[in-house]
Amino acid sequence: MLKVNGIDVFYGNVQALFNISIEVNNKEIVSIIGANGAGKSTLMKTIMGINKPANGSIEYDEEVISSFKTHKIVGKGIVYVPEGREIFPQMSVLENLEMGAFSKKYTKDDIDRHIQEAYELFPRLKEREKQIAGTLSGGEQQMLAISRGMMSDPKLIMFDEPSLGLAPVIIEEMFDAIVKINKRNDTPVVIVEQNAFMAMSISTRTYVLEVGQIVNKGHSQELLSSPEIKKAYLGG
Ligand code: ATP
Fold first, then answer.
1. What is the CA radius of gyration of the chain?
2. 212 CA distance to ligand 1 centroid (A)?
3. CATH 3.40.50.300 in the chain, residues?
4. What's the whole-model pTM score?
5. Which residues, including other chains, have CB under 8 Å from residue 4's CB and lie 6 or more apart?
6. Residue of the CA atom closest to atom 10 of ligand 1
7. Phi, psi (deg, nearest 5) at residue 5
8. Cα gap 163→177, rounded to integer Å
9. Model confidence pLDDT, tens digit, residues 49-73
């Protein structure tokens, strides 16, 4: 479904990604793990057309999209929930959700149905429907960012560090929701994470990114028991 073919990405003269290839198939959850600065966000932003690869290509549904502008990529049904959440802090929870449907030609009923689905996924958002989003807790803001991303019926959804800055119990809730999202319409999911254990626990396959290069890849369950991965990413 999504194929990244040997991309190189630069910021000025500095190369951030080296010959990166990844694939995401229908129905899969794929995780991309790596430390700070490994290039995870750069990879996401390149898939979204925010950065352009100097070499290589990106294909989605058998079409080369790497020259497309971001809005066109979004129009193809790829949704990116960025690191740091980026909700509209001055707007209410409900208004943020409505903004997520902005690019779609939905009827009022379609919008209401999507909002109800968001509230089923995260009942806490319903309780806080009228609250100004900037005053939500970090976990609630992440719930809102995820739900806003779901408002447009993504065909592929990519989450950038959904666990960042959250307490363990909230992290579990977030990952449970990601599994439900994947199951709901068999929506393929990409999770980019420093929290390697959680991301690998819910994903089918994993890529390990280190200083801009894929240094390991495979089935998540196998990688979880690999001594090398345990030592480097799972605290021994
Ligand atoms: P983090 O989890 O800290 O966000 P990351 O794995 O997402 O890390 P990136 O943000 O993709 O890593 O950064 C990869 C490299 O590219 C880093 O060395 C970073 O300093 C550099 N970089 C990222 N954005 C820019 C930019 N806009 N201009 C210049 N260099 C950048």
1. 17
2. 9
3. 1-77+155-168+188-236
4. 0.93
5. 20, 21, 22, 23, 43, 46, 47, 56, 58
6. 41
7. -110, 100
8. 12
9. 999 999 999 999 999 999 999 999 9
